[in-house]
Amino acid sequence: MLRKLIEKDLILGQRILALTGGIFTLYFAAALTLRSITAGGYAALTGIMCAFLAVTLIARDDKLKANSLTCSLPVTRRSVVLARYVEGITLGLLGIVVAMVVGLITPWSVLDPRELLTGRTVMVAVTVVTITIALVLPFLQRFGIWGLFGLLIAAQLLGAVVMLVGTVLARTNPLRHGIYAVVQTVETSVVSFYASLSTLGFAAMWMVVLLVLLALSYGVALVAFAHRDL
Amino acid sequence: MTEHALEVTGLRKRYRGFALEDVSFALPRGYVMGLIGPNGAGKTTIIKLIMNLVSRQAGEIKVFGLDNRRDEVAVRSRIGFVYDVPPLLDDTTLERHRRAIAPFYPTWSDATFERLAREFELPLDKKVKALSHGMRTKFALVLALSHDADLLVLDEPTAGLDPVFRRELLQRLAALLQDEGKSVLFSTHITSDLERVADYITFIRDGTIVFSLTKDEIRENWGVVKGDETVVAQVAAGTRHGVRRGPYGVEVLTSDINGARRRCGEGTVIDRASLEDIMVVMSQEGGRAA
Q1: Rounded CA separation A84/A143 (Å)
Q2: B positions 16-75 inside 8 Å of A (CB)
Q3: Predicted confidence band at B76 (pLDDT cuts at 50, 70, 90)?
Q4: Nearest 5 degrees, angle CA A74-CA A79-CA A84?
Q5: pLDDT-based confidence at A87, cuts 50/70/90?
Q6: pTM for this predicted structure
Q7: Residue of A nearest to B106 (CA)
């Protein structure tokens, strides 16, 4: 059943997938001209975009109400949700492969290919794909395309509010040292995490964490989709 | 072997501002049931509940004796479903839809699909966006009929179609059904469609089943008594299901046309009630269940 669902989505979404994939590939090539880009940054950027390959496909289904077509077929909702997670991760990983190949063969790339093809860079991309899928799919399954928009807008607003509060407090409030401390801690953690990814043991443990995160997200999406009226 | 294709018992579904309450009816195998009612009465909600597309607060739905939630895969593989607005992907060809959908049904027949597509003059290489609403409905019907479904569930399949097209669709549907003994649940607010094809009529209003009867029972027993205000009292209260007052008099809907003839006498005009009469009069305020 899972295979049939994935095949169905690929057959019906072939065109949109080719179009989105093509545009993303051009964008990857363009990103490689940015002087400020690092291998980790490129991996993170392409990771987010690759996660959105499947998200685009699912959101389109939702917009065109094709969800109700899928759920009127002889399938369970559990298998529909599972198929979407499998699609999301598979397309995301395939996208990363494409991004890496683009990074290696683009003549104008500012990145050193040896830097790009490290386990650490690949792990960053895998992390970003997994976290994006884990975060977005439950919203998409429960609230459809509006859930996705809501999540993106909420993330933007949160960022704006944090920036605003930070700016105001930095000028007027003695708490600014505390805020800087928090920001610095986050920054140090990210840098330290990035460095640790080169260690095989840490990378393996992190993979387990990502799998647990995916499993939790799948559980939430399952409950959310089971209660959704189509 | 269960004798019902579909049994709905005590179904309840609440939305904000609308509720289906205690909906029960049964469709015997091999028959066509028309589900009628005004717009917003709850027809589509019932159909979505049968397809398990929406959750319910209470009740049970059995399709050929199988629970539609516990055995949803088995149930859906025996149902051919046509939406009021078929949710097809605009930028995708009909042939691609077939390739995507066919593998889900073990009983799918490419030969049937191709034959019906030819009969319905469907351009399989065209994208859905190039099709009219009627052609989309025809395509949805072809998909529903190509896997040898035992029960067809059709949600307003004739809505938005012109009369010629509608007649053609119904004729083709009737011809297909005649030979193969399928069961059909057909929701519509165009009652004339059902006069031609239905064996049973289930009437729903404001989320409640008003009646579920054979068309013959309705044809033989239901009538409209026409006259002035005095005819209202002449029709026995227990058989009176609604009164419509217009500029030219009063119409009383009764479920006992022979009783009404006896009570009202020769001079009163009493016609057999069409499904449209029933729907119009019973949809008025004060219309009463059978």
Answers
A1: 15
A2: 48, 51-55, 72-75
A3: very high
A4: 120
A5: very high
A6: 0.84
A7: A74
